[in-house]
Fold:
Amino acid sequence: MPDTIEKTDPGIVSPEELVQRAQSLVPMIRDRQAQTESDRRVSAELFGAIRDQEIFKILLPRRYGGFEHGLDTFAEVGIEIARGCGSVGWVNSVTAMYHVFLGMYPEQAQDDVWGEDPGAVVAASFTPTGTVTAVDGGYSLSGKWMFCSGVDNCSWTIVGVTVPPDKDGDPEGKAYALARTADFGMEDNWNVVGLAGTGSKNVMCEDMFIPEHRLLPIEDTMTGKPPGAAVNDGPLYRIPLFAAMSCSLVAPIIGMAQGAIDEFLDLTKGRVTRGAALSKPAPMAALPGIQLKLGEAMAAVDSARLLVDRDLKDIMATVSAGKELTMQQRARNKGDWGYAARLSVQAVDAIFAASGGGGLFRSGRIQRYWRDAHAGSAHISMNWDAVGALYGRVTLGLPPGPAQF
Structure:
């Protein structure tokens, strides 16, 4: 696995150790699945446990004590956390990925957050449903934003905004505004059937002051030369944002599928049929249909993991060599990750079908992995119709269209 940090550097935890730490958290996270779903957010205890194991340092700039490991390490650890709970895994991955995002901001914005608290974690909502207007020293921010996953656990939030043109006839701009979460209002609207524990609530504000250095134009996130690259010289902060962002979605979806397999194995090894269709009770594990469903699910998850890992290693190798990602690479990765999500959903479907009537009870975990994986795959960046078509379109030599990738 490529590693942008020498393993002999003092204070750097190796990728292998971080994976083991993530695995050590899985039983506790799994045991609290029902409570996380009931609370409709990740508890401070669980979020703190992930932070204490230094999981959030994987993509954190070294200037603030981070490790700056590769995206492949990030995804591997994210998969492990999501094995315990889909909601916890989703919040972990998406908020940890925003360390790369914040690392692209001007140095002063980074210091506002991590200079105050190196352990601070950021939530975000990308759709530009807010606006900013220029005022003395910065901007006035107003708007309402949806799907702020993990916002209860994050002291800062980044939101997408529209920037009015400087003069008539110029196009509107798009940018991202950074503000303290406490300065937003919050709408407790997250009542959903899947990923219910992510706390992906609405936030809103009216005429909130934003200093100039906390507004990042969208173009700066796409060039490979954002302001933050002047102080964070590692490859992570030179990867165009949307060329990497979707890996934070597919990793937990793969983890959810693996979690369903784990749970199925625990339940099936000692389970005996009631005999209604077989004339006498028999071990479930001896049924060819059960074996086939399990084999199908495991092969699908293995394929998804290998596909994503290959692409992330390729991104790190390309950018570390000082090269730019090609349009074909970026389209391939988008398509691959959407397909990996599709494979993961197929795996969960196979496990759910093999679980029979026992899998229908809300007290069980397999149905929760099933709901969560379907919910995660509904994200537009994981939508196979969209990303699969993008991959095919670019391969055929056609322009990618309006999709961000």
Observations:
- The longest helix spans residues 288-320.
